[in-house]
Amino acid sequence: MEQPAERVADRAGGRVGTIRKSIASGISLIVAGVVLVVPSAVAEEPPAACGGLVGQLSSTLKGVVDGVVAEPPEGKAVSEALGDSLGLLTAMQGAKCLPVPPVSAPAAGSPAAEPFLGPELCPSHAMASFAGVYSVLSKVVPGAVPPDLGKLKNEVTGVLKTVKDLLANCGLPEPEGGLPTVPAPGSPSPTSTTTPSPTTTSARPT
């Protein structure tokens, strides 16, 4: 028995409406999923204290450069500035500007470390910065065999580049004026001063 055309149309319309609702629900879920997932992948802004710590780190690294290029080089000043640099890198970890190394379990009585939410490449560059500073420090601490000055300058230059990469890959601000650099061979050192030679006049016979 044939059904009235109106009833067939109503049923067809109902099916279309159901399909449209299903599609709309699916799109809503997809959009909701995107909204929920994307923010978790975006790195958080570094804490406000990081800018000041970066500035202090730049100042201590300038002390390293000044000690290395001094005539003669100042080993004590270099080692102390490197020690201060390590202290500031550690302070940056405490302020959550940099990640801490992964451990299997926190030390007794210590809370579990919170997951680092910075850029993906930041942990690698952070560990490289610590390693670079420790490497130079091991060559200038009291009791170390005096290093070749040219090689030492090259290694300090490498540390400065590593720290520059650290700032870029951890979303940290560049210090005002940029990081210090080791002068190229033949360039005047930042701490050197030139004493003008006295003007001489030749006596004319009278």
UniProtKB/TrEMBL annotation:
It comes from Saccharothrix longispora. Residues 170-206 are annotated as: Disordered. Residues 189-206 have a biased composition (Low complexity). This is Secreted protein.
